[in-house]
Amino acid sequence: MNNIMTKYNNFLINLTLSSLLPLLAFLFMINPTPSYLSNLVVFGDPVDCPHPHHHHHREDPDEDDQSVISSICDNFPTNLVPPETTNTSVFCVDQNGCCNFTTVQAAVDAVPNLSIKRNIIWINAGIYYEKVMVPKSKPNVTFQGQGYTTTAIVWNDTANSSHGTFYSGSVQVFSSNFIAKNISFMNVAPIPGPGDVGAQAVAIRVGGDQAAFWSCGFFGAQDTLHDDRGRHYFKDCYIQGSIDFIFGNGRSFYESCQLVSMANPVPQGSKFVNGAVTAHGRASAEENSGFSFVNCSIGGTGRVWLGRAWRPFSRVVFANTVMTDIIAPEGWNDFNDPTRDQTIFYGEYNCSGAGANMSSRAPYVQRLNDTQVSSFLNLSFIDADQWLQPYSFF
Ligand SMILES: *[C@@H]1O[C@H](CO)[C@@H](O)[C@H](O)[C@H]1NC(C)=O
Ligand SMILES: *[C@@H]1O[C@H](CO)[C@@H](O)[C@H](O)[C@H]1NC(C)=O
Ligand SMILES: *[C@@H]1O[C@H](CO)[C@@H](O)[C@H](O)[C@H]1NC(C)=O
Ligand SMILES: *[C@@H]1O[C@H](CO)[C@@H](O)[C@H](O)[C@H]1NC(C)=O
Ligand SMILES: *[C@@H]1O[C@H](CO)[C@@H](O)[C@H](O)[C@H]1NC(C)=O
Ligand SMILES: *[C@@H]1O[C@H](CO)[C@@H](O)[C@H](O)[C@H]1NC(C)=O
Ligand SMILES: *[C@@H]1O[C@H](CO)[C@@H](O)[C@H](O)[C@H]1NC(C)=O
Ligand SMILES: *[C@@H]1O[C@H](CO)[C@@H](O)[C@H](O)[C@H]1NC(C)=O
Ligand SMILES: *[C@@H]1O[C@H](CO)[C@@H](O)[C@H](O)[C@H]1NC(C)=O
Ligand SMILES: *[C@@H]1O[C@H](CO)[C@@H](O)[C@H](O)[C@H]1NC(C)=O
Ligand SMILES: *[C@@H]1O[C@H](CO)[C@@H](O)[C@H](O)[C@H]1NC(C)=O
Ligand SMILES: *[C@@H]1O[C@H](CO)[C@@H](O)[C@H](O)[C@H]1NC(C)=O
């Protein structure tokens, strides 16, 4: 934990991030997709519900109240809530009170300990402002949202406000067999300014083994996705951040994900580097952790490294990934510790785009051949045949 705090003391000196711009302003800048914005402006409002004011013809206040309640829930998509089966329990969350729980945490609290059933927490569209924790005693939990642009869990803890980066997550998952589908995890703490200390703000910490994320969004700036430990799968996800925005010691396979840097733009010709996509934390040769990115894309703003060697045996591979020119020509950083050059494993294979030009890469970076890359290219990297269920499985 001290490591993660001190690593920024070195790094933040170089930062040119402007402070105080709210995260959502950055969303606007880097992802000006109209559909996304129109979804975000409903922030906190009933998403699919008619506005109560449509009932102004009612005279009696009590009657009016009832009509408001019934009209808010009239559009509740009952048909989308999966049925309970012998193998599944369903916990329904709607912030307007149209089903059993109004917060995600209340639903998590209702999941029994050590359940062998799959516990589906079905979450209606909306922005849920709460800090959520799934304890180790509750395996087999699924968060099912309605789309990562319409359903989000949002909080704003920082390293300072939560006794360290590791506890700053808006969502913290400590149990195994966790699944999330069609939902976003966001940390909206102020974006760190140059020299800021203690401003790391995690959107989610994934601290259990065998976790899968399908079409999920991860939004933050510094340290967005804490891919802490265990085997994890990310498919079709959108991951945004600036410094070390995917970090941890997980063994994880990222397939067809969009990685979006929101580091400040750097002036033309400047050699300044102000962010890093990954900071993998493998500490010894005995650990089989690593991040493998296959068929992903990297874009956004700033000038960033593909990875920084948070710990000496840091291991990251990018394959078949399209990279824009935001990638610094040297590609990677050994944490200004040349002794790590012998032990880090940083590889690239068949990538494309202006950022994938390897002619100026740091000397320790490997141009992987077919044999070397094979164990990183498919789901066997995370032993998926032992645990990963298809998307259709709840
Ligand atoms: C429940 O699980 C059992 C054992 O894995 C399986 O045979 C059965 O088809 C499942 N039932 C449902 C409704 O999914
Ligand atoms: C609410 O909880 C009750 C009792 O556990 C259950 O019968 C019902 O199906 C739940 N409703 C929803 C929408 O989850
Ligand atoms: C679940 O386990 C935790 C910790 O082991 C315990 O504190 C809690 O009371 C248990 N909850 C239930 C509902 O048994
Ligand atoms: C529940 O979790 C246990 C271990 O955490 C796993 O063996 C089991 O297959 C899981 N059950 C379901 C339905 O996912
Ligand atoms: C939910 O996720 C699945 C699997 O990644 C994807 O195919 C689907 O389009 C998503 N649905 C919505 C509403 O976002
Ligand atoms: C989180 O937001 C609340 C409400 O705006 C604010 O009072 C609090 O200081 C914020 N916390 C941090 C760490 O920024
Ligand atoms: C975090 O706390 C330290 C020590 O109190 C303080 O110097 C620093 O400004 C704080 N950082 C933020 C982002 O609030
Ligand atoms: C990556 O894309 C290639 C070419 O489209 C495809 O053959 C391969 O199956 C994909 N790999 C993964 C892991 O999705
Ligand atoms: C290399 O990447 C291209 C896309 O740029 C893709 O079409 C091709 O299948 C990839 N080759 C291999 C061996 O994965
Ligand atoms: C790669 O970069 C080198 C040196 O900057 C340059 O000479 C070369 O033309 C570039 N290659 C491509 C394919 O852009
Ligand atoms: C791949 O690289 C390794 C290590 O440099 C080498 O031993 C092997 O012969 C190469 N394989 C191919 C197919 O080029
Ligand atoms: C995955 O890659 C491994 C090589 O590391 C290979 O042995 C295995 O057959 C591949 N599996 C699939 C499904 O392609």
TrEMBL record:
Q: In which pathway does it act?
A: Glycan metabolism; pectin degradation; 2-dehydro-3-deoxy-D-gluconate from pectin: step 1/5
The chemistry this enzyme catalyses reads:
[(1->4)-alpha-D-galacturonosyl methyl ester](n) + n H2O = [(1->4)-alpha-D-galacturonosyl](n) + n methanol + n H(+)
Any single GO molecular-function term of the entry would be:
pectinesterase activity
Which GO terms fall under biological process for this protein? cell wall modification; pectin catabolic process
The listed locations are:
Secreted, Cell wall
UniProt-listed Enzyme Commission number(s): 3.1.1.11
Q: Which Pfam families match?
A: Pectinesterase
Q: Which PROSITE patterns match?
A: PECTINESTERASE_2 (PS00503)
Q: Which residues form the active site?
A: D244
Does Transport count among this protein's keywords? Answer: no
Segments crossing the lipid bilayer: 12-30
Q: Which UniProt keywords apply?
A: Aspartyl esterase, Cell wall, Hydrolase, Membrane, Secreted, Transmembrane, Transmembrane helix
Pectinesterase catalytic domain: residues covered:
93-384
Q: Which family does it belong to?
A: Belongs to the pectinesterase family.
Protein name per UniProt: Pectinesterase
